[in-house]
Amino acid sequence: MPEQIGVSLSGGGFRSTLFGIGALHFLAEAGLNEAVKVVSSVSGGGYANATLAAYRIAYSAMTTDEFRDALLPVVSVLAAEPVNLLGVPSPVVPARLRKRLWSAVTGIATDTPLMFAPDDRLHVFCATNVHDGEYLYLTNRYLWNEWLGAATTTSMTLEEATAASAALPPVFPPVPIDTATFDLGRRPDVPRRLYLVDGGITDHLGDEGMDLGLVPPPGMEDPEDEEGGAADAGAIPSRFKLVIDASVPHGRRRDLPLATVPILRTPIPLAGPASAMIRAGRILFGNQTKRHIEELREEFGAASGAVVSLTTTVGAPSSMADRSLPRWAPLWRSGVDWDQAIRVVSGIRTGPYSVGPEVASSALLLGYTKTWVALTEVGLIGDFEPELLGPGAQTETRDWWTLP
């Protein structure tokens, strides 16, 4: 096992939440959560991250049953029959409705401080600072931005950090934060108020926030950490990066539903152009993410990291492993049509909606299974057979999560 594992959860609404929970479940089952030093998230991945951060037991110390107890409130809400979790139809989500959504999904009080979190590991929420166009990392220990440096604050809440990482205008307005509450000293160059928007504008995968935990900025180092170096060929690396990507799409495919807002045909002025602009933003995110994944895979090489992508290969669903290899037998004994499951989960629309038990269990099972496949392929785990991949894996997943 590596000495330190970093995990990043991509954006992608509640599709990313469920897929990420499945991936984190497998890590706990395999005992790899013990080495997880940092969980970084963008947008929808933040709901899973925040729930872990606020739980009474640190993720690194959780058993699989404790992990289920921690995330079950989120899974149960998202697996309910499809409904608008805001309670009212609204094309724009102001702070009042945003907090209602948070309470409905997580069950965590909206005034829970960001830096109260009991977990001894770093939880990073990646937002974009409109003032300088760069990341502002919001963590349970400190805030970090290249321009601001490191700071702490007692006024920011866990809900605000999650919301800031998901604030994609115009649907989710920017989240304002008061810099007067930061311990920055006298900084005349810092405005009294900063506005934060979706971290996916800068990086939809959140892997740079994961780097923050593995290689802390100056002055934020953990004295218990030892310097991790590069591993010898064939050796287990001291630091391993795991990127969980459920952003979708990485490009338009006829066989892969585009999880985005349709272009509206409406007599309402500007509604059609506005929806087209939103779609253009989605396409830009997709192309940016595709290039970034290719760069990460080249950086990771054979052993220092892995990208667990919902679509397996960039841009299209495909079989997850070679059927001729005995080690992949659990995939085919499971009775799951994996390509169909990928299509269904890829089609989860980005928005404040529950998805139903069947779709939710598919997302959970895909995140769980694809993480097993990816870590087996890079040699991080040996002949480990996942508990959920027996015959009837879909039913096993629903039963394990006590879904209807």
Task: Set down the secondary structure blueprint.
Layout: E1 4-9, H1 13-29, E2 36-41, H2 45-54, H3 64-78, H4 95-106, E3 122-129, E4 134-139, E5 143-145, E6 149-151, H5 158-165, E7 175-178, E8 193-198, H6 207-214, E9 239-245, H7 271-300, E10 305-309, H8 329-333, H9 338-346, H10 357-377, H11 393-400
Parallel strand pairs: 1-2, 1-9, 2-3, 9-10
Antiparallel strand pairs: 3-4, 3-8, 4-5, 5-6, 7-8
Helix pairs in contact: 1-2, 1-3, 1-10, 2-3, 2-5, 9-10, 10-11
Which labels suit this protein?
404 residues, alpha/beta, ten-stranded mixed sheet, 11 helices, 10 strands
Cα shape: globular
Coarse structural class: alpha/beta
Task: State the major sheet.
Answer: 10 strands, mixed
- The share of residues in extended strands comes to 5-15%
Question: Can you walk through the features of this model?
Answer:
Helix 1 runs antiparallel to helix 3 (64-78). The protein is α/β, with parallel strands linked by helices and 404 residues long. Strands 1, 2, 3, 4, 5, 6, 7, 8, 9 and 10 form a 10-stranded mixed β-sheet that branches. It contains 11 helices and 10 strands. The chain is globular. It has helices at 13-29, 45-54, 64-78, 95-106, 158-165, 207-214, 271-300, 329-333, 338-346, 357-377, 393-400; strands spanning 4-9, 36-41, 122-129, 134-139, 143-145, 149-151, 175-178, 193-198, 239-245, 305-309. The two termini are 36 Å apart.
